[in-house]
Structure formats: C-alpha cells, structure tokens
What we know:
Number of strands: 8
CATH topology: Lipocalin
Distance between the termini: 52 Å
Helix content: 10-25%
CATH class: Mainly Beta
Largest sheet: 8 strands, antiparallel, barrel
Low-confidence stretches: 14-23
Number of domains: 1
Number of helices: 2
Radius of gyration: 19 Å
Amino acid sequence: MKNKVFLLGILAVALVFGMTVVGCDFYDADYEGLSGDWDRGDCQITFRGNRGVFKDITGGYLLQAKNAGRAKIGDQVYRDIVKTNENEWTGEVRFYSNSSPYGPLHWGNCTITLMENGRLRVTGSFNSFYFTRM
C-alpha cells in the first residue's frame, strides 16, 4: 500500500512538472475576445494573455523586414496588454520602419478595441490598424 501511495505521489509531481514545462494555457477572462489569431492583411498576429506575436508576415514593409532577417514568426509585437474597459485594452506595440533599412524601431503605447463588428482596432501615435479574426 505504501508503494502505491508513493508511486501516486511521484505521478502527481511528474504531471505538475510536465504541465509547467509544456506551458499549458490557462483561461484568463481579461483577454476573452482578444485571444486568438488576427489578420491585418500584411501580417497575422496571435494574441495570448498580455502579449501578441507574429503568426505570419505576408506583405509590405513587414515582409521587407522579414526578408532582411529583422522580423520573424514568433517575434513579440504587442506587450504589457492590460484590460481597461469592456472590449478595450492598452499596451505597447512594436514599431517597424516602413523604409530601408526595414526593421524594428521602438515600442509605443497603443489602445486595442474590439469593435461591435467583431474587428480589432489598434490606435496610438500612428494611423489605426484594423484586424479581422481568423
């Protein structure tokens, strides 16, 4: 009986360790509506928790940055996202140069809004970006 309890304890520790290493995503209500994959036309972003990363880069100056090795799939583009209102978050977005040499410049503040039509609008000290859920 003691061996069974000991083995069960070892199994529980292994399970917890495995979940930690794999990085299971736990549900967070603050990011409901934002989490998932979004398409801007020239890139796709995956939002998970308080960050967003490139899922794909397909056109424009971002593709130029990708081809130059200055942007890649998985690079963080949004960070420190915090829910501020229903269907609205603030955070920082990574700015990329839209002329040669293409690549990341700096981080800037942004507001992310889930609009009534289901699209995302990202605004800041730049023109607004619009995303459609994939």
